[in-house]
Structure formats: C-alpha cells, structure tokens
Amino acid sequence: MKNIFNGDRVIWVITGFLTSISCLVVFSCSTSINSLFSHVFHLVSGFFLMVIFSRTHYKYLTNGSLFFFFFSIVLLIIVLLKPLPNIDGIIDSRRWIQIFGFSFQPSELAKFSLILLLSRNLSVIDHKKMSAKEHFKYFYFPILLVVALIFKTNGSTAMIIFFSSFIVLFISDFNLKRLLQFYSFNIILVALGIFLLSQLTTNSRVGTWEGRINNYFNGENSYQINIAKKAISTGKWNGLGPGKSVQKHVLPHASSDFIYAILIEEYSIIGGMFILVLYLVFLVRIIAISLRIKLMFPYLLLLGLGILIVFQAFLNIGVSLGLMPVTGQTLPLVSKGGSSIWITCISIGIILNITSQYKNNMIYD
User: What string of pLDDT tens digits covers the 365 residues of the chain?
Assistant: First the structure.
C-alpha cells in the first residue's frame, strides 16, 4: 500500500475524506441506483488516474502541456460548432461532448491545461526580457483563446480561468504593470461582451447568467438559492441525519451545484465547517510545500493547480450560502460529475508527484 500512496500523506487523507463524504451525500441525493453507480465509477476511475499521475514525473508535463492545451482547444471548438436542436426558446447549453460513450466537458480540461501551459512557458522562457508582443504571444493569447471559446456557453468557468491565470502570472514575478494593464483592459472588454451578447442573442446562456448577476446585486435570490438557504437553516447545529434531507427533492442540481447545502442539512453546520476546513488545510499544505521549492515549473504547477481546486470549492460554497450569484460550478471531489472528478483527480495526482519529489530532496534546497 505504501507504493500506491505516493506523495504527501496529508493531501491523501484530505482526498480520502472528501471522496468518502461525497459517496454519502450523492447516495442520499440519487434518484436511482444507476446514478450512484455512475458516481462511484467516476470516483474509482478518478482514483486510478490520481495514482498514475502521482507516479508520473511532473517533468514530462513540460512538453505534455502543449498536447493537453491543443487537444482541449480542438474539443472546445467541436463543442462550440455543435448544432442546437431546432426548438423555440431553448437555452444554448453546449458544454459536453461524447468520447468513447462518455460525456465529457472540455472546459474542465481547458482550465487544467492552461495552468500547465502557462507554468511551462514561464519556466522555459525568460519573460522578464520579453517585449509586449512576445508577452501576448506566449501568455495573453492562450488565456484569451480559452476564455473566448468558453465564455458564451460557460461564463463562470471562463471567469475561473481568468482569475487562476492571473494568480499563476502574478506569483511568477511577472511584469506587474503589464499584467494589470492586460487584465484591466480585458475586464472592461468582458463587460462590453456581456452587454453585446445579451442584446444580440436571444437563446443564449449569457442572458441567463446576466439575469443571475442582476438579481444578486438587486438583492433578489433565485429559486435555487432560496431552497439552498432553507436547507442550510434546517440543518442548524444537529442536522437531520444521513439520507434525511427534505430539500433534495425540490432543489435542482442537489447532487452537484448545491451539494454543500444538502450536506449541511443532513450533517449540520459542523459538517459544513469540516468540509471548509479540509479545503483550507489543503491550500495551506500546498503553500507550505511550495515555499521550499526552488524550480519554477513545479512551483507554479503546484500552486496553480492547488489554487484552482480551492477557488472552485470556495465558489461553490459561496453560491450555496447565497454570497454570490449562481455559477453552476461543482464542489471538487464531492459533487457528482464525471469531467470535474477526473480532471480534479489528475490535478491532485500531479500535486502528489511534486510533493513526492520535494520529499526526496529533488526539487528544493
């Protein structure tokens, strides 16, 4: 068993807790045994992916990042070109593609592969001596390309990519002036894009999440958030108990987008705080290890992938608590969802490999 669990033990323990809790809550929310089997399959296959990547030296991802990135771009283009059913009033929800009989969400691969590519470019190219044109070619263009391909059908994921890429560039000692200029300009551009798309398109998800943002700032909670808040208030400090959630029957996406609310309803506020602490310990552990790493590529990869996972977790939790608009983001390793589980497990596998190299005195002084 020692040979299987390669890497930091704390991260393994946290992963074990999150997946175990996931099985309990998804089982409670499942409408059929097939739904539960599907989730368990994704977790088990994700575990094997995690083990494989934890035992694959991170250095192979230096050039492998190029393959992951271009493959994700191809998948995003295929999804974007998929025809919509000719039904009046249908919302543009093209997010998935069928691969070997499995539904896969390319945006999950895209945000992962972009972190890999940025980490690779920052470590092999001397960005401090680059011109503005070269900065755009190697760093800004890949970010804009991924965001542009995802933006129309999955705005929340595009925003996560935008934020996480900023963090990776920032911690690499990137030219701060140029970085702030680029992101300031593109924030304005994104706001203009939202306005134009909402005016020019009728059956688009842009209108959906524009409405969510407007409702949030106007103090008007959506139906999902109202039900999620009711579930949380019902859970209080004692909880209803495993499998006894009431709101799971009426809360849309109870096993994915709003699983945190159901978890609190069944396992109390203490259970919800326990999940939050697990993600915080995960982040602190990654930061603590990264401070000892001297090589740029594993340093950026460790922090980039770790922050990406934790940021998505906080985003999901914030939505359930009504602290931000509905985003449709899953709770990593807890929510039901094949693509998210697989990519999260691969990311954690890479993190585990880096921590194992760190423990073997190979990438730090």
Answer: 556 777 889 999 999 999 999 988 888 887 777 778 888 899 999 999 999 999 988 888 888 888 999 999 998 888 887 665 544 444 445 566 766 666 778 888 888 999 999 999 888 887 777 777 888 888 888 888 888 888 777 777 888 888 888 888 888 877 777 778 777 777 776 666 666 655 555 545 555 555 555 555 555 567 778 888 888 888 788 878 888 877 788 777 777 778 888 898 889 889 899 999 999 999 999 999 998 888 888 999 999 999 999 999 999 898 888 777 777 788 899 888 788 899 999 999 999 999 988 776 665 54
Separation CA 287–CA 85 (nearest Å): 46
Instruction: Write the CA distances from 276 to 3, 92, 273, 281, integer angstroms.
Output: 30, 33, 5, 9
**DSSP strands (E only) in 236-351:** none
Cβ contacts of residue 133 below 8 Å, gap of 6+? Answer: none
Contacts of 29 (CB under 8 A, 6+ apart): 245, 248, 254, 255, 259, 262, 336
99 membership: H or E segment, kind and range = strand 97-99
End-to-end Cα distance, the chain: 29
Using alpha carbons, select from 323, 24, 306, 10 the residue that is nearest to residue 171. Answer: 306
Give the integer Cα–Cα distance in Å for 80 and 106.
10
Whether 278 contacts 17, CB under 8 Å: yes
21/44 Cα distance (integer angstroms): 14
Q: Which two tokens stand for residue 268?
A: 């109390």
Distance of CA 64 to the CA centre of its chain: 20
User: Which helix (H) or strand (E) element contains residue 357?
Assistant: helix 338-359
Of 23, 93, 138, 75, whose CA–CA distance to 343 is shortest?
75
Q: Map out the domains of the chain as residue ranges.
A: 9-81+102-359
Write out the two tokens for 199.
Answer: 């005016």
Q: Of how many residues is the chain composed?
A: 365
CB-CB neighbours of 2 under 10 Å: 5
Ramachandran assignment for 236, one of left (phi > 0), alpha (psi -120 to 50 degrees), beta (any other): left
